[in-house]
């Protein structure tokens, strides 16, 4: 029959302490998980960039990026409430940048349509002999 030596029994507590230490160290070195609000802010910034907000709403997009950087710093300091607040502000700024971009683009299209309509009206007046 195979028996476990007494020396091995003497080393078991030492092995258990070593394993517990490894578990504690691995947990302590894991970075805190970013809140869902930060992912939402990142997505809102990406969306604003896709619609060319840097051209039409650079201030708001810059503010969104700054707030997101502040949120990331708060996460690294394990200040999750503050991180959520900054992330929510970042998302709001990015959404504002997207909205301002959409408004600017729509206004540009509207102005072009007005110019085109004006040109057509002038052309029609010339074609019929009416005076403006």
Give a quick summary of the entry.
This protein has 132 residues and is an all-alpha fold. The protein has a domain of 84 residues. The protein has 5 helices and no strands.
Indicate the radius of gyration in whole angstroms.
Answer: 31 Å
Helix content: over 70%
Number of strands: 0
Strand percent estimate: under 5%
What structural class results from the helix and strand content? mainly alpha
Low-confidence stretches: none
- Major pleated sheet: none
Total of helices: 5
**Helix-strand sequence:** HHHHH
Mean pLDDT across the residues is 85
Query: What separation lies between the terminal Cα atoms?
Result: 116 Å
Basic shape: rod-shaped
Structural commentary:
- With 132 residues, the protein is an all-alpha fold.
- The protein has a domain of 84 residues.
- The chain has 5 helices and no strands.
- α2 runs antiparallel to α4, α2 packs parallel to α5 and α4 runs antiparallel to α5.
- The longest helix is centred in the C-terminal third of the chain and has 49 residues.
- The chain is rod-shaped and about 115 Å long.
- The N and C termini lie far apart (116 Å).
């Amino acid at each position: 029959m195979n028996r476990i030596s007494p020396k091995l029994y003497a080393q078991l507590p030492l092995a258990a302490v070593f394993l517990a230490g490894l578990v504690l160290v691995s947990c302590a070195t894991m970075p805190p998980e970013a809140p869902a609000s930060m992912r939402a802010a990142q997505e809102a910034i990406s969306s604003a960039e896709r619609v060319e907000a840097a051209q039409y709403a650079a201030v708001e997009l810059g503010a969104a990026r700054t707030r997101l950087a502040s949120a990331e710093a708060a996460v690294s300091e394990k200040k999750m409430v503050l991180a959520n607040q900054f992330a929510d502000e970042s998302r709001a700024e990015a959404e504002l940048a997207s909205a301002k971009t959409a408004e600017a683009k729509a206004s540009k299209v509207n102005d072009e349509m007005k110019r085109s309509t004006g040109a057509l009206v002038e052309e029609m007046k010339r074609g019929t002999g009416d005076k403006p």
